[in-house]
Amino acid sequence: MKIALGADHRGAVTGRALSAQLGAAGHEVLVVGEFSETPSDYPDVAFGVAEAVTDGRADRGILVCGTGIGASIAANKVRGARAALVHDEIGAELSRRHNDATVLCLAGDTITSDEAVGIVEVWLRTNFDGGRHERRVKKIQAIERGENPAALGNR
């Protein structure tokens, strides 16, 4: 799988660990930005990762900033990206199974690199369940188009 990976300065250590883990697992890693402790702006990296996913250069994306909040907000502004802020393996699994998340956002300040590796492993191996969740993802896409999702009903 081709993974776009980016981190700001507060996620640099975790970003380096994830890059090594993903490469060792046989994934192609598209690094967006640098994994440097020099202050950087998470919106720049978030845009690059989300755009790589939505334009097809990457299958999925992973972002790490201090809390994961800013990266998640910024990535979700890119049309077609579904970024999920995740703190544990359960959230990783459900973000894929129920929401078909395409960008995983992690908090470099509150999870260890080892925890991040476990979260990423679960997230990458989990598929979207479809079914009733497909309807909800379609409603998210309607919102992106500026439409009222309720107009789609509950079918």
Task: Give a description of the structure.
With 155 residues, the chain is α/β, with parallel strands linked by helices. It has a single domain (2-129), classed as Ribose 5-phosphate Isomerase B, Chain: A (3-Layer(aba) Sandwich), CATH 3.40.1400. The protein is 44% helix and 16% strand. The chain is built from six helices and five strands, in the order βαβαβαβαβαα. It has helices at residues 12-24, 42-54, 69-75, 89-97, 113-125, 132-144, and strands spanning 2-7, 28-32, 60-65, 83-85, 103-107. A five-stranded parallel β-sheet has the order 2-1-3-5-4, with helices on both faces. Helix 4 runs parallel beside helix 5 (113-125).
By CATH reckoning, the class would read Alpha Beta
Q: Flag low-confidence runs.
A: none
Architecture (CATH level 2) name: 3-Layer(aba) Sandwich
Proportion of residues in extended strands: 15-25%
Kindly report the spatial arrangement of strands forming the biggest sheet. Answer: 2-1-3-5-4
What's this, in brief?
With 155 residues, the protein is of the alpha/beta class.
Structural features:
single chain; 155 residues; 5-stranded parallel sheet; 6 helices
Q: Can you lay out the helices and strands and say which pair or pack?
A:
Blueprint: E1 2-7, H1 12-24, E2 28-32, H2 42-54, E3 60-65, H3 69-75, E4 83-85, H4 89-97, E5 103-107, H5 113-125, H6 132-144
Parallel strand pairs: 1-2, 1-3, 3-5, 4-5
Helix pairs in contact: 1-5, 2-3, 4-5
